[in-house]
Design brief:
heterodimer; A: 175 residues; mainly alpha; B: 194 residues; 8 helices; 0% strand
């Protein structure tokens, strides 16, 4: 079971280009194919991962790994995630200066950047379907987006602010 | 010994860099100025490369710096340095998350927790949307030089973007592995000289 966990995150680590591009891969591997977690749970983990120390991708992997296999699962999932990056960078580190200046490399990465953007957009569309379900969630979504994009507010404060709103709203609704 | 220094420095970074891979960069810059394992320019390069290679930026940068720091003792020593740096970076978050996950498990049915997450989910979606937007802005520019009054949009990038987003929504192609989209993007980038 641990091998499957390791290998699943190995695959995710192999194809993610930047922290947020992990989401489409998580959705595909964990929610669609293996049904290990629900879409909601992934978002829950992601939210916490935004304000805890460390890298979002790593934190999310640890969460999911824990759900599957407790402490050991958390460790295995994290190690699986970082395997390809560590190996790849080790290889690249020794040839970095040689290849980085080639024009073709720049062109390839320009195309990759566009692809990553498209993947993130599709992940967001999918997330919106499950998380933005009423007016208040729409307002929270817009607030988070605008605060980050226009005012560059730190994600930690955005999440903490949302937590306060969430708790207050819960109290108000009870009455 | 270099490995202890790497462990200490990267453990600290992993503990205090909150909120995403880019948060590790100030710590890395500080390490560069204090230890000189790599130059400032090399740091900028590795950040650019780390954004483009598989894996979280922090992990990539830690591996590279760890290798650079320990390389003077040989290739194998360098590789060990990369592994030590990376493991040290992720260790604090593994510990913290496992603690939180344990607590969460006990209280997951609590009303308060559910209210909390109901608000956090759309918020996190908004944050991801914001991150995606900033990546998109960079991806669509013709050049990486940005002037305050204009930036040239490369329309070929816009077309590629439009095509790819459409493919992610169409019934026949939406379930393809994301890696394929990346390969496709890279190939088009090379062919079209984006």
């Amino acid at each position: 079971m641990m091998w499957r966990l390791y290998f699943t995150f190995f695959k995710i680590g192999a194809f993610m280009f930047g922290g947020y591009s992990m989401l489409p891969l998580l959705q595909r591997e964990l929610v669609d194919e293996k049904k290990w977690v629900t879409e909601e749970e992934i978002l829950n983990y992601f939210s916490i991962a935004q304000c805890t120390p460390g890298i979002i991708a790593v934190n999310t992997a640890t969460f999911v790994g824990y759900k599957r296999g407790k402490v050991w699962g958390g460790v295995v999932a994290t190690l699986g995630l970082i395997t390809v990056p560590v190996v790849l960078i080790s290889l690249i580190a020794y040839v970095l200066t040689t290849f980085a200046h080639l024009p073709i490399v720049a062109h390839i990465f320009a195309g990759i950047r566009v692809a990553v953007s498209a993947l993130i957009v599709s992940a967001v569309i999918r997330l919106m379907r499950s998380s933005v379900t009423d007016l208040i969630s729409l307002l929270l979504f817009l607030a988070a987006f605008l605060l980050m994009t226009l005012l560059s507010v730190s994600p930690i404060f955005v999440v903490l602010g949302a937590a306060v709103v969430g708790l207050a709203w819960g109290r108000l609704r009870k009455r | 010994m270099i490995y202890l220094i790497l462990f200490w420095e990267f453990f600290k970074t992993g503990l205090f860099a909150v909120g995403g891979g880019l948060a590790t960069i100030p710590f890395l810059a500080d390490m560069v100025s204090r230890y000189g394992w790599i130059t400032q320019e090399q740091l900028a390069n590795i950040i650019a490369v780390a954004e483009s290679t598989p894996g979280p930026i922090g992990v990539n940068a830690a591996t590279y710096m760890g290798i650079s720091a320990a390389s003077e003792h040989g290739v194998l020593a360098g590789l060990l340095g990369g592994v030590v740096a990376t493991l040290s970076l992720v260790l604090p978050s593994i510990i913290v998350i496992l603690l939180i996950a344990g607590v969460l498990e006990r209280y997951q049915k609590a009303r308060v927790v559910n209210d909390l997450f109901a608000a956090l989910r759309p918020t996190a979606t908004g944050l991801v949307a914001a991150a995606g937007f900033s990546v998109l802005v960079i991806a669509l520019k013709a050049s990486l030089v940005f002037t305050p009054f204009s930036f040239a949009i490369d329309y070929r990038c816009v077309i590629l973007f439009g095509v790819l987003v459409t493919l992610t929504q169409l019934k026949w192609t939406k379930n393809l592995h994301p890696g394929l989209f990346i390969l496709f993007g890279g190939a088009v980038g090379a062919i079209w000289a984006l």
